[in-house]
Design brief:
mainly beta; 789 residues; 13% helix; Jelly Rolls; 34% strand; single chain; kinase activity; 6-stranded mixed beta sheet
Length: 789
């Protein structure tokens, strides 16, 4: 019994988990914020954090709302995507009061993300107004009528029903801020609409009374002002100040005076800037599209445009970037945006003293760098003439008396040493350095290795264990000036441990023991001898292979023989061209074959060859190429080899031989080929066996059925052709198919008959010799005589 009680106490003390309200109680949780079943009204996702509203539709009358007590049911009014038909219309200066409580219905917000909020609709017709601006006069109290006692955030959506279509034209916010304000023009978007619909909603449930009216009487609007004293203080501390302009709750709608065709939401900012410098005013913090205009008031209290600025992109940030010059007056700016529910953050920074002396050409103020960019010989914060530049004192009359080198440590831009430093050889040296007294600013003393006169490590060196070592020491790589870096026989200063070691030739981070000069000489001589022998063997092998290949190519009659036919099966094949070589996973070059005779005709009975480069671009599949040579007695094309299988990412060179037997039209003749892909060479070999020794006439129905079976293992096959780019030379061995002879001779003699005919559309006379009574010697003499003619 005691054991059971202890176990129960142990389980109870260690099984309490944090639970959400939707789980009911902590005892229902089986892990942190996890329970098997959520209460009604919650999403059944195990965490029970969120209210379930997935099944809401046009017939729903309630929804679940997250409150301080968890998800509770509230009444719902479904407006759909249209403006309700029963909207209350308010007259000018007619006050209307709406009380927000938990009993008031929820509606779907007409603009924005379309969430469900507590809100109500009103409409207002502005055609009865005499002025051009609509103001909202309102008060917010608690249910007892007390003001300034409610913390709330209210959103106002402005909707126009232009030509029967709902159009969200503006959005504003009211809330617990100092100066909430709402105003808009009587006409928006340059149209004739006068009736506007307003949807007032709360982002969270709050009990309050909201009383308001639309009026022509101007309500108080705050203009933000920055005094010159604040900007002077900002310049002294050299910091960036940021002003938050609450456009969401205090901005007003309208048309900018400098850009009257654009509708937007605006807020004003004024300041005095009389410092002899330049102020950078930016909105880069938000990285949003904004506009800004400068204006003045005329004698009729109307705005007059002074200047307008568009948004730009600087260093990857989008926004307003202005360089403001000093002025002895209050400057007035209006910030404009088309994102209506957005506060604007304006950053102010005083930069570029004396405007970089831009008036005399010393430099200019850069927005991207936020400082002066000076021309050669000028520098400092304001682009004055440098007292020391390019190892020379400036101006020419300056001899550098009592001045330090500009750019050296503790030397100001006016070539004067900072407080606490003395001038030694035009360098600023601290008192402790000259006195060899160690302090936190002293790295080393003058005379130490790699130590400068100012008791700092020289440029490119850093302090490590009271020594100045290269800055690159410790990066694991041997850099210039280092023997090693972190490897074997290497000390912490990136030097070899002693003179018995030298930097390693194999491992950059390490050192290695020294080798005697005799050993080095023997190794060098042996390597040279081995290298000479290898080069000699390679040269002999290349000469042998080249001479043997040329002799084989030009003298072997096999290259002049006709190759066996392969049936060209192109059903389902893709046409190849160089433009689609990557998508078809292979490449062939060249496709135009001139056999080295692009300008000169090829002689009859001369065998010429050309190499073709074939590459398999596939990463996983084998590729097979078949060259379908023509069976023609006029010429022979012989491919070596005629069929080739390549593995993935492999390439090879194919040699094609051409032998002409007569003068015939060979240029632009096409030699076809087919390409096949498969994951196994076994399937490719089956394709070869099926196609070999087959022509169009030999291809049978059984062959077709067998091919369809084999194609299941062929994911891709393509076809293309080479084009012959040479011509046949003229000879007596003509293509008889190009010669047309009349049936009756026009003359006849003892040696033969003469016919009239055409050769390549040219009229010719053809003489047919009598051979039957001639000896072999006489026949050869007659042939030579005809050839010589």
């Amino acid at each position: 019994m005691i054991v059971l009680i202890l176990l129960q106490l142990f389980y109870t003390s260690f099984s309490q988990y944090n639970c959400s309200v939707g789980c009911g109680s902590s005892s229902n949780c089986i892990a942190e914020y996890t329970c098997p079943l959520c209460l009604e009204g919650y999403e059944q996702d195990g965490s029970c954090f969120y209210c379930d509203n997935d099944n809401l539709d046009s017939t729903s009358t309630t929804l679940n709302v997250m409150t301080v007590n968890g998800c509770e049911k509230r009444s719902l009014v479904y407006d759909g995507d249209n403006i309700p038909t029963d909207v209350i219309e308010l007259k000018l200066d007619e006050r209307y009061t709406y009380t927000f409580t938990k009993d008031k219905p929820y509606r779907k917000a007409p603009c924005g993300n379309g969430g469900y909020v507590q809100g109500f609709w009103v409409k207002f017709d502005s055609k009865a107004m005499e002025n051009d601006t609509i103001y909202l006069d309102f008060t917010v109290t608690d249910l007892n009528g007390e003001e300034d006692s409610v913390d709330y955030t209210m959103t106002i959506n402005i909707i126009s029903q232009h030509h029967g279509n709902k159009l969200c034209v503006g959005q504003s916010s009211l809330g617990s801020v100092l100066y909430p304000h709402f105003q808009m023009p009587k006409q928006m978007f340059m149209n004739d609409d006068t009736i506007y619909y307003y949807f007032f909603s709360l982002t969270e449930e709050v009990d309050l009374k909201f009383s308001f009216c639309f009026t022509e009487s101007e309500t108080e609007r705050v203009r933000y002002y920055i005094s010159g004293d604040n900007l002077e203080m900002l310049a002294e501390v050299k910091r960036t100040g940021t002003v938050q302009l609450p456009l969401a709750s205090e901005g007003y709608f309208g048309y900018p005076v400098c850009m009257p065709h654009i509708f937007g939401k605006m807020i004003d900012l004024e300041y005095e800037f009389n410092i002899s410098a330049v102020m950078l005013m930016t909105t880069k913090r938000q990285n949003r599209i904004l506009y800004v205009e400068e204006y003045e008031w005329d004698e009729n209290d109307d705005k007059q445009c002074v200047q307008f600025w568009n948004y730009v992109t600087v260093n990857g940030n989008i926004g307003i970037f202005l360089l403001v010059q000093p002025s002895h007056r209050v400057r007035k700016f209006t910030f404009i945006t088309q994102e209506h529910n957005l506060d604007i953050y304006v950053s102010l920074r005083v930069i570029c003293p004396n405007n970089c002396h831009n008036d005399i050409g010393n430099g200019y103020c850069s927005i991207s760098e936020e400082k002066c960019i000076c021309k050669e010989g000028y520098g400092g914060s304001d682009c004055h003439l440098l007292c020391y530049y390019n190892n020379q004192w400036q101006p020419s009359t300056n001899k550098g008396d009592n001045q330090c080198y500009f750019g050296s440590s503790s030397c100001s831009e006016n070539c004067l040493c900072e407080d606490g430093y003395v001038l030694v050889n035009h360098r600023c040296i601290s008192y402790n350095c000259t006195s060899r007294i160690k302090d936190e600013t002293i790295e080393c003393f003058n005379g130490d290795i790699n130590c400068d006169i100012d008791c700092k490590c020289k440029s490119g060196y850093k302090l490590f264990n009271e020594k100045c070592i290269l800055e690159t020491c410790g990066n694991g790589m041997r850099d210039e000036g280092e023997d090693c870096d972190g490897g074997e026989y290497c000390n912490e200063f990136c030097k070899c441990q002693s003179n018995k070691y030298i930097p390693s030739s194999n491992i950059q981070q390490s050192c290695q023991p020294k080798i005697s000069s005799g050993t080095i000489a023997g190794i060098v001589c042996g390597c040279c001898a081995v290298l000479f022998i290898i080069i000699l063997i390679i040269i002999i092998f290349i000469i042998y292979k080249f001479s043997h290949s040329i002799q084989l190519l030009l003298n072997d009659d096999i290259w002049k023989s006709q190759q066996p036919p392969y049936y060209m099966y192109i059903s389902g094949s893709k046409r190849y061209s160089p433009e689609v070589s990557k998508s078809l996973k292979f490449s062939i070059t060249p496709l135009s074959l001139d056999f080295g005779r692009s300008e000169i005709p090829t002689e009859i009975f001369e065998t010429r060859y050309q190499e073709i480069h074939v590459k398999n671009l596939s990463k996983r599949k084998d590729m097979m190429i078949i060259f379908h040579t023509p069976n023609n007695p006029k010429y022979v094309f012989h491919f070596n080899p005629q069929v080739k299988i390549l593995g993935p990412k492999r390439s090879t060179d194919i040699v094609v031989f051409m032998t002409l037997h007569c003068t015939t039209k060979i240029k632009n003749v096409c030699i076809p080929y087919t390409v096949w892909f498969s994951k196994s060479r076994r399937y490719l070999n089956k394709i070869v066996e099926l196609l070999k020794e087959k022509t169009f006439n030999d291809w049978s129905q059984s062959d077709q059925l067998q091919m369809e079976k084999e194609l299941k293992n062929i994911p891709l096959h393509c076809h293309g052709n080479f084009v012959i780019a040479t011509e046949a030379a003229s000879s007596t061995h003509i293509d008889m198919d190009e010669l047309n002879i009349s049936e009756e001779p026009i003359a006849e003699g003892a040696m033969g008959k003469v016919y009239i005919g055409e050769y390549r559309s040219v009229p010719v006379a053809i003489k047919v010799f009598r051979w039957e009574n001639l000896t072999e010697e006489e026949m050869n003499d007659l042939k030579n005589e005809v050839i010589n003619e």
